[in-house]
């Protein structure tokens, strides 16, 4: 059974890596549900499963988005104008979100994740605005919005791309550029939140995750596969229709969110 669990971790890493590169979502939308089902198989106590799934998901996102961001940088798609306006708020919010995740009961955290998943899946199906990018938004407003995005992303372990890509598209940033900036944002959220989860996890009497709330072996298996596949996903954004991929993925997420909410 343990071998099956590790194989599922590798498979989840492949999917997460491809999605991180193609959609800039960090892979957490796949990894968190996967880990909620797999961590009990790997011996994690039920009361730690959801928090550890969130923390481990964010740890894998660090590796995945690092690889994806490097690929987008080589393709010249990263807009540093938007990076400078988003990153500080994303990192500060991520630390708060990680702390909040450790304070909530696991069943409530799982339901919050399922609701966020459902909203984001529906959001993927809504047509986006086009036209010249809107660059006149105040820095304070962008800092507030990005802090909220960082908090929610760390709370449910999704890395932030699922929120920052729609935000940037709302500001009429071209889709490929939005995905590239989102990869950098997801990396920032992941680093900040994981450090917080490691520190917060030191207070647990039984540190099953080896690295605070991060389950080390699951993190390693998923990360290796996702890092190898993220550059391929980034390259595929130049060749395939992203909209069709978003639609199919959104339908899948609706089913997963309903299952998690009921379960």
TrEMBL record:
> Which branch of life, at top level?
Bacteria
The record's Gene Ontology cellular component field reads: plasma membrane
Which keywords belong to this entry? Cell membrane, Membrane, Transmembrane, Transmembrane helix
Q: Which residues cross the membrane?
A: 7-36, 48-69, 81-102, 138-158, 178-200, 212-233
Q: Does the keyword Nucleotide-binding apply?
A: no
* Keyword Membrane listed: yes
Where in the cell does this protein reside? Cell membrane; Membrane
* Alphabetized Pfam families for the sequence: TauE
Membrane topology note: Multi-pass membrane protein
Q: Which family does it belong to?
A: Belongs to the 4-toluene sulfonate uptake permease (TSUP) (TC 2.A.102) family.
- This one is known as Probable membrane transporter protein
């Amino acid at each position: 059974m343990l071998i099956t669990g590790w194989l599922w971790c590798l498979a989840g890493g492949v999917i997460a890596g491809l999605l991180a590169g193609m959609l800039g979502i960090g892979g957490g939308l796949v990894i968190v549900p996967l880990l909620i089902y797999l961590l009990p198989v790997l011996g994690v106590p039920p009361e730690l499963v959801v928090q550890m799934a969130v923390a481990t998901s964010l740890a894998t996102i660090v590796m995945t988005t690092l690889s994806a961001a490097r690929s987008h940088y080589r393709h010249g798609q990263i807009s540093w104008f938007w990076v400078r306006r988003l990153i500080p708020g994303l990192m500060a919010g991520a630390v708060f979100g990680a702390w909040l995740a450790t304070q909530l009961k696991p069943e409530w955290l799982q339901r919050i994740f399922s609701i966020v998943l459902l909203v984001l899946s529906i959001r993927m199906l809504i047509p986006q605005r086009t036209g010249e990018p809107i660059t006149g938004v105040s820095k304070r407003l962008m800092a507030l919005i990005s802090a909220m995005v960082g908090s929610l992303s760390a709370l449910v372990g999704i890395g932030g791309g699922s929120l920052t890509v729609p935000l940037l598209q709302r500001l009429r940033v071209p889709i490929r550029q939005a995905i590239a900036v989102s990869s950098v944002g997801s990396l920032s959220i992941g680093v900040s939140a994981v450090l917080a989860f490691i520190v917060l996890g030191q207070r647990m009497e039984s540190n099953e995750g080896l690295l605070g709330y991060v389950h080390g072996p699951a993190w390693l298996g998923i990360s290796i596969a996702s890092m190898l596949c993220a550059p391929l996903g980034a390259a595929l954004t130049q060749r395939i229709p992203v909209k069709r991929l978003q639609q199919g993925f959104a339908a899948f997420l609706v089913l997963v969110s309903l299952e998690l909410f009921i379960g």
